[in-house]
Amino acid sequence: MKWFKHDSNANMDDKLQEILLDYGLEGYGLYWYCIELISSKVETDNLTFELRHDARVIARNTGSTVQKVSEMMSRFVDMGLFEASDGVITCLKLAKRIDQSMTSNPAMREMIKNIKNHDKTPKNHDSIMTESSKPMQDKNRLEENRLDKNNKNQWTPPEGLNLEAWADYEQHRKTTKGKFSDLARTKAANVIKDLSHAEQQATIDKSIQSGWPGLFPDKSKKSASQDLSTQIYKEGSF
C-alpha cells in the first residue's frame, strides 16, 4: 500500500497528546514512522498489518537507542495505539483507514472491498476487523433494519448508503446533537446517498473532524475558513 489516510489534526488526538507530553516529537515521529513501515508492507498476500522491523533496526534508522525505542513501543501498546501478541506488533486499526481510491491495482482494490465488507470477508481476514468491532455492530444493526420491512418502527437506510461510514456518523451525530430522529436520519442520508462510498466516507470524516452535526459534501473537498465553519455548524442541524 503506497499511502494511507492521515488526518491533519491527528496531533490533537488524546493518546498522541500524551505521547507528545511524554516523549515530544521523538515519540510522535516514531509512531508515524512505524505506521509507515506497517502500511508499506500491506499487499494482497500480506494482510497482517504487522511491524516487521525490530527495535534494533528502528533505532538505527531513526538515530535513537534500542532501549528508548523499546520503551516508547511498549507505551504505544499500553495505550492501544498498537497491539502486541507473542512479540509481534500490529496496527489493526489501519484496516479501517484504507479505501479503494488508494490504489489502481485490481487485486488490491478487491482486497480493500473485502475488508470493508465484513460479511464477505474470508475467515482468515477476521482478525483485521477487531478494532472496528463497534462500527461493524452498528452496520449489522442498520442492515437488519433495512431487511426488516415489516417493522414500521425501524428506520430503513436508503439504497446506496455506505453503512460502515454511516455508523461512524450516527455515533458522531448523537454526540453533537443528542437525539437522532428517523426524520433527521432520512434528511441526512439523502444528502450523501447518491455519492460514491468513498465520497460518503470523506464527507462524514470531514463533519466528524470539524465537529459539524450536518453533512456537507462540497466542504469535504476544501478547507473552510473559521467564520464559514461557524456558519455551517449553525445551519447544519436537521
Taking the sheet with the most strands, its summary is: 2 strands, antiparallel
The rounded Rg comes to 20 Å
**How much helix, percentage-wise, in residues?**
40-55%
The H/E string reads HHHEEHHHHHH
Identify the quaternary structure here: single chain
Number of domains: 2
Which strand order does the major sheet show? 1-2
**SS strand fraction:** under 5%
- Return the average pLDDT rounded to an integer: 76
What ranges have pLDDT less than 50 throughout 5 or more consecutive residues? 118-137, 148-152, 223-227
What structural category characterises the helix and strand content? mainly alpha
Report the principal-axis shape.
elongated
- Count of DSSP-assigned helices: 9
**Total number of strands:** 2
Cα separation of the termini: 38 Å
Which short descriptors sum up this protein?
single chain; 238 residues; mainly alpha; Arc Repressor Mutant, subunit A; 2 domains; two-stranded antiparallel ribbon; 9 helices; elongated
Task: Summarize the structure in words.
The protein has helices at residues 14-40, 55-62, 66-78, 106-116, 133-147, 163-177, 182-192, 197-210, 226-235; strands at residues 83-85, 88-90. The protein has 238 residues and is an all-alpha fold. It has two domains: 10-100, Winged helix-like DNA-binding domain superfamily/Winged helix DNA-binding domain (Arc Repressor Mutant, subunit A), CATH 1.10.10.10; 134-235, no CATH class. The protein has a two-stranded antiparallel ribbon with strand order 1-2. A hairpin with a 2-residue loop joins strand 1 and strand 2 (88-90). Helix 1 crosses helix 3 (66-78). The two termini are 38 Å apart.
